[in-house]
Amino acid sequence: MLKWLWLAAVVVVLDLGTKWLATDMLEYAISVPVLPFFNFTLLHNTGAAFSFLANAGGWQRWFFAALAVAISAMLVKWLATIKGDRWLAIAIALVLGGALGNLYDRVVLGYVVDFLHFYWGSYHFPAFNVADSAITVGAIMMALDIFRKPSPETVEKV
After folding, report:
1. Concatenated DSSP letters for 87-101?
2. Which of 62, 83, 63, 57 is nearest to 4 (CA)?
3. What local confidence, expressed as pLDDT, does residue 60 receive?
4. Is 99 buried (19+), middle (13-18) or exposed (0-12) by CB count in 10 A?
5. What span, in angstroms and rounded, lies between the C-alpha atoms of 68 and 71?
6. Is 44 helix (H, G, I), strand (E, B) or coil?
7. pLDDT of residue 154
């Protein structure tokens, strides 16, 4: 399990490092064009994904922090049970690292630092960060894991 915890730690370090750089080098809410569909835009998210509950008055900070702690503990426990399934272990480690990166922001800063801003024409996708990316990739890997191997119920007994 230790090697997968190292992957989660790498995600946390990359996430916090890029957030530090973004905070240091960007002005709040001022977009810096990088590509015709991508900007660096420093934003602070006090809510959850897509700024859900961002204007809820402050209680959401501790609610989402407690939720992240509970989910992280569950993921560590789950990771400890994985034997020989590299795909699932990587998926869990990515989600764990992302959850811990955003948890740090939420507890220490009171908001999550976002700075990756994609758009197409006039449609702007909500800004996000490395932790969000790791959580998304890990969650997609978990969803694909369902199709990677048959469940015990669907395997024919010979």
Report:
1. HHHHHHHHHHHHHHH
2. 83
3. 64
4. buried
5. 5
6. strand
7. 44
